[in-house]
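pinging the channel bc i need a second pair of eyes. not urgent but kinda urgent?? the chain im working w is below, pasted from the shared doc
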Amino acid sequence: MKRAACAWLFLLAALMPMATSSQTPTPPALAFDELHSGASFLVQMRMGSGIEGRIGSASGELAGTPASGWKVRVKLDGRGLRVDGPRWMERVTRSDSFLAVNRYPVIRFESEAFSDALLRGGGALPGRLFLRGLVQPVSFQLLPSACDRPGLACDINVQGRLSRHAFGMTAYRALLKDPVEVRFRVRLRPSPGPR
């Protein structure tokens, strides 16, 4: 009995390296160039012009390969929010009535998997948005690429609309419309490559 157990252990030990070597390594993700990536938004007033704002830097990554498809993760720090116009507009936008950046500073978007053809040609980009402590499914529009190497030789541009009310921003309904127009601009850092 002991010999049979030893034989099984020897066989398992011999097969372990074969099992681990057959696994394909996960390709490294391409990190955002934070200085050249960011987000902007526009909230329309019911009368007059809209309120424009931006978060001037974004972190995140584009993970995957052209063959297997891609996923993008975007992380914004709401404390870096800047709003055009009078100071009271920025105070209101940062307040608990709107983005609540002191309570929920991190804004994240995580896409579903998408193809290389979509990355180059554009189309619907569904995913989940984490905002103000809530998570909601959203669908943005990935714009067609202006170059052969999206994110490296030119920006990746995403735009879309989301509902303020879906994320609990219900204040000032008489003054502001519900939809918020959102734009992301992403530039990637080249992978370091082999040394």
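so The two ends are 51 Å apart (CA to CA). and Confidence is low (pLDDT under 50) at residues 5-22. — does that match what u expected or am i reading it wrong
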